[in-house]
């Protein structure tokens, strides 16, 4: 699926994401700044924090308890905040837009 990553300054990067990878891995693999992934995807650093559009957020499975606890600690949580490493790409995500927080630059 094609996923668009939008930086805090509005620059957008559309990338082809591999099904089964997660949003943090997709960002790193494509050299996209704004998602750091310092813990390697073990849900313990929150440097892969991102914001989804409401419609995309709504069609994903709800975040796990551990992910919600990590999201409580991020700098600027939104209603549609997710940890990129906990969102696994599937074919239905074509067209998804992922916004990256200014605090990760
Ligand atoms: Fe550390 Fe996602 S990469 S919480």
Automatic annotation (TrEMBL):
All copies of domain 2Fe-2S ferredoxin-type, residue ranges: 1-104
InterPro entries: 2Fe-2S_ferredoxin-like_sf (IPR036010), 2Fe-2S_ferredoxin-type (IPR001041), Adrenodoxin-like (IPR001055), Adrenodoxin_Fe-S_BS (IPR018298), Beta-grasp_dom_sf (IPR012675)
Cofactor: [2Fe-2S] cluster
SUPFAM superfamilies for this protein: 2Fe-2S ferredoxin-like (SSF54292)
Keyword Metal-binding attached: yes
UniProt KW keywords: 2Fe-2S, Iron, Iron-sulfur, Metal-binding
One Pfam family it belongs to: Fer2
PROSITE patterns, A to Z: 2FE2S_FER_2 (PS51085), ADX (PS00814)
Gene3D superfamilies documented for this protein: 3.10.20.30
Recorded family membership: Belongs to the adrenodoxin/putidaredoxin family.
Protein name: 2Fe-2S iron-sulfur cluster binding domain-containing protein
Species of origin: Metapseudomonas boanensis
